[in-house]
Amino acid sequence: MATMSGDDPQRSVEQFLYRQAECLDTGDWQGFIDLFADDGIYWMPADPSQATGDGVPSIFYEDRDLMAVRMRRMMHPRAWSQKTEWGTNHVVSNVRIEKHDAASGLLVARSRFHMMEFRNDSTRHFAGSYIHHLQPSPDGYRIRLQRVDMVNAQGLYDYVLQAWV
Description:
This protein is α+β, with helices and mostly antiparallel strands.
């Protein structure tokens, strides 16, 4: 688990985001889910103008329970979609803290990402920005909300996203 680095929230947030990317790239799905607060939400809007994911179509709008369902589906021995050679590589950069309440420790961080996915002998690239609403916990941060805005969210895909970006 990425821990908070003393009085340097910038470094703590960077290390946390790198840990999240590592969970995704190694298929540590439970580790990824554990980074979320009990009421945490992973949200990827279908359109960048969306102000909420509640009650409107989104690419992803999952709480921890729905993330656990996705994880079990991906890990199921008969999950055909997982039988092909598959992997991702995330690069997270341009991390900046937008808001930080020093008293409560709550903060909002923005960053950029690039993800390469290899599956079925082909490569796809996804890029965009993250917004993380983070709360401190005894062993690091927990995600209250992660918003993922992909540059190519409205593009055509020959297959759907299997896991989180």
